[in-house]
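Worked Example 4.2. Consider the chain below.
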Amino acid sequence: MLSASERFSCLVTRQRHKRCVIVAPKAVKIEAVNKVSTWRKIGAVAQVAGKQAGRNRTLNAVMGAARTTARSFGRAAHQLWLEVMGLFFLIMALGFATGTVKEYGKYHSGSAGFSRLAIALCCTLTFAWFGLSSFWRARRKGHRP
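Applying the procedure from the previous section yields the following structure tokens:
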């Protein structure tokens, strides 16, 4: 425990007046409160602003419209993503199909083994499945209310 003289401190100002204040025993820890990160301050301000904005009917209407618009665009973008990916997978399946036809010709003539034909056929079927299932998922998402 600090003595009374250690807790009582006098400050001298420019006008040569003494101002005496009582200093807390753990005054060093008080300085750490001021060193809050900028992001925490921004977060606190945003939280207060959000609570205040929640009471404004016009802002609530604008935010609701923005959420509805973003949700609509998000659904359309997701459906487009599924269709584009389905197209890429089908194009790759077409490339593997041409390789499968070439490997079948080599296998039929006896110059290549069955394993190469099986690998090419599996790749073709896998990518074709990915492409078709992507289109089916896009169609299912398009019919949802």
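The longest strand covers residues 8-12. The chain has a mean pLDDT of 81. Compare this with Example 4.1 before moving on.
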